[in-house]
Amino acid sequence: MEAVAFLCLAAAVLGWGFLWVWDSWERMKGQKPAGLPGDGSRTLLVIAHPDDEAMFFAPTVLGLARLRHRLSLLCFSAGNYYNQGEIRKKELLQSCDVLGIPPSSIMIIDNRDFPDDPGVQWDTDHVASTLLQHIEVNSINLVVTFDAGGVSGHSNHVALYAAVRTLHSEGKLPKGCSVLTLQSVNVLRKYISLLDLPFTLLQTRDVLFVLTSKEVAQAKKAMSCHRSQLLWFRRLYVLFSRYMRINSLHFL
Family per UniProt (predicted)? Predict the structure, then answer.
């Protein structure tokens, strides 16, 4: 009898939890996140390597497209760690085409100052000056990049955050230009896919993007363009990572 009562209570709690998550998400879907620039905003996604845009930022790219942002992308390396730079540049263009970013809005920096190498620390001032020039020339309203954890902890990801943080803290960003950073989470949450949504809803965040099933297929298609990178563990990543479905972000 006690077991039956316990199961009933557990079912009730789970049912309540499911309804709470569903209700919270339904209320959020129709709302434009507070603080985000509106329709027609010039938004710049700043990444370190080809495949970052699909592997980590697909929900943000597709979510901003829903809000009719004019998206462009700045990639700070060609991803030449294994001498595949030329291949990876082509793959990036293919992936961005799937995600709706045209070739004319993509810039790939391919020089020795920013090597694809987790053992090399990019110079913060050099990254910052390069980024600022791109922001000013293209009249960018919103910059999106990694947070201090870099999602995977890669030093090149962290270098982008350090640069944009420097520009923000020193007041060098143009007036009206905001910065959003992608929240890093622990390993457990990183690999439980959509099951992480309740934890995400319970935490503070400024912007949340969750993909529909159709958009998830689009994100996976974009990632599949990076054929040179689709080793077995990345295929598992595509299946289980929350970043293929959910992005929570914070304003600086």
Answer: Belongs to the PIGL family.
